Amino acid sequence: MMTTDKVSIDTIIAMCKNRGFVFQGSEIYDGLANTWDYGPLGVELKNHIKQLWWREFVTTNDNSVGLDGGILMNRNVWVASGHVGGFADPLMDCKDCQTRTRADKLIESHDENINADGWTNQALEAYINQHHLVCPKCGKFNWTPIRQFNLMFETHRGVTQNNTDQIFLRPETAQSEFINFTNVQRSMRLKVPFGIGQIGKAFRNEITPGNFIFRTVEFEQMEHQLFCHADDAMAHYEKYKQKIWNFITNTLGIRAENLRFHDHEKLVFYAKAACDMEYHFPFGWGELNGTHHRGVHDLTNHQNLSKKSMEYLDPMTNQKFIPTVIESSQGLERLFLAILCDAYHTETLADGDTRVVLKLNPILAPYQICVLPLQKKGLTETATQLYRDLQQQFTVTYDDAGSIGKRYRRQDEIGTPLCVTVDYDTLNDQAVTIRNRDTMEQTRVKIADLPAKVIDIFTSYNKKKNIL
Ligand SMILES: [Zn+2]
User: Fold this and answer.
1) Does residue 357 sit within a domain?
2) What's the 89 CA to ligand 1 centre distance in angstroms?
3) Average pLDDT over the chain, rounded to whole?
């Protein structure tokens, strides 16, 4: 059997659309750029990722609790965080072909040793003029002046459109954790170090084209902020780097050879350390998540603007201090894409046939089991009953359309780990055939033993190096 795990992003996009994972947003109206809708299988996969992350970072994580903050917040949250003043892209347009370009990215692509992040418009323009950087689309040198374009989606509350009513869709979830730090600490009587986790939507008005769901204007974040003493912060930072690595490789089952850490050499002024974990996507290495040592920057800024104390009183030492934040920030859609790219395999079988198989970890698969009656005639009632019984414990689908071989292939393509086939012998021996997605082996199992057998197969999955 020949296997390849090489896949193009166009193949993944087509598979996602055809199999009900991801559809283009507003497709019947020709779409809305960089927006996507998650279909019946996509929402199941997304929910499974979220449940696993929540379990690992909140419910089973020492001293950690959850939060579900609002998308809309007081404008001052974004003043204190620096997003109102500074969260902007420097954009300019080519007067000849109207292509819009980020000035800092143009400079960085000209000289990869430069980090133009944070340069003033004057500095950016001076460099572009001095080095005669032309339009990447048409090659002309005819730029408009640079304008700072804020990345936050802005809306207005009420009927009038004046500045006092201006509010923003949150560009990140983290600020909810910071502004609720004292609420959470006091109500739950938590002692530092403790963590707050949140899963929620965030919005960024970016013009950068997206590589499918890798970069979108609306996205979901899974973030955990640990509040700790400055003296212990680097140890926690290293621990959370290891934690996200373990989550992605061991819990989710993404292959380690497609992952790497990238430590930031140039840090924003307040950060003490930062690193990304990257996945080798079909379009190249891309950031999956970040672990950040943010110092006391966030809580200090909110204390300064709100005039509310963000200090913590250590009951053991009687020392008062603003806790240091170690952040673990994960983009849900990027992880979703990495999981699909990693699981996608094409196999040429012994008889020359080819099959596409999505080798998903059973805990992630949209459906864990498919129940199939070999024929509709005389078997529907038994198969339907088995389907209903298995649904009490597993996520199950049912398929009675087409040849059995075609039905197996359909389940392979969406990553269903096990197919359970009801045939005419079932009526006499109360047994069914389990067909394994990865090995295609078939075994006969008594219906009474089926749930225990399924659990056994699933729990041994990771021990056998990701093979069913
Ligand atoms: Zn141009």
Assistant:
1) no
2) 19
3) 93
